[in-house]
Amino acid sequence: MNKPIIIGLGEVLWDMLPGGKQLGGAPANVAFHASQLGGDAFVLSAVGNDVLGLEIIDTLERRGIHYLLSQTKQPTGTVDVILKQGIPEYTIVENVAWDNIQFTDEVKILSQQAAAVCFGSLAQRSQQSRETIQKVLEELPVNAV
């Protein structure tokens, strides 16, 4: 029996924490947990053609998570996190790779096979990624969630 395909669609990024960077982005986190629960999980996003992008790819591969990542001229996404009296404050960097997720033939085929997709509002801040999210949703099988 085939495992269900679950897509985490949207931001994949590095959370730049006081103690070091951690892979983040809600859709990427969902894909990770879906893979841990036995799903065939994919991160569908974009990374820059830079060291941080290569590190994301390496981390996903080491964790056994599939990915379809557009590679863009924009830098790989980051979120700067600082603590003020123990309370985190976030700076979400704009005009980054995941603001430019591309809808490709490969993305279309994956979308047509998916059992579920998780996407959030953050990746919809740019027109390019918003249009890609909408196209993915249009291609989903009727019984997908």
Query: pLDDT under 50 segments (min length 5)?
Result: none
The DSSP helix count reads 4
**Helicity, as a percent range:** 25-40%
Q: Strand order across the biggest sheet?
A: 5-4-1-8
Overall average residue pLDDT: 95
Care to describe what's here?
By secondary structure, the chain is α/β, with parallel strands linked by helices. A four-stranded parallel sheet has the order 5-4-1-8, sandwiched between helices. It is built from four helices and eight strands; from the N terminus they run βββαβαβββαβα. Helix content is 31%, strand content 33%. Helix 2 links the parallel strand 4 (40-48) and strand 5 (66-72).
A few lines on this structure:
The protein is an alpha/beta fold and 145 residues long.
List keywords for this structure.
8 strands; 145 residues; 33% strand; 31% helix; single chain; alpha/beta; 4-stranded mixed sheet; 4-stranded parallel sheet
Describe how the helices and strands are arranged:
Blueprint: E1 5-9, E2 13-17, E3 20-24, H1 26-36, E4 40-48, H2 51-62, E5 66-72, E6 78-84, E7 87-92, H3 105-113, E8 116-119, H4 127-139
Parallel strand pairs: 1-4, 1-8, 2-6, 4-5
Antiparallel strand pairs: 2-3, 6-7
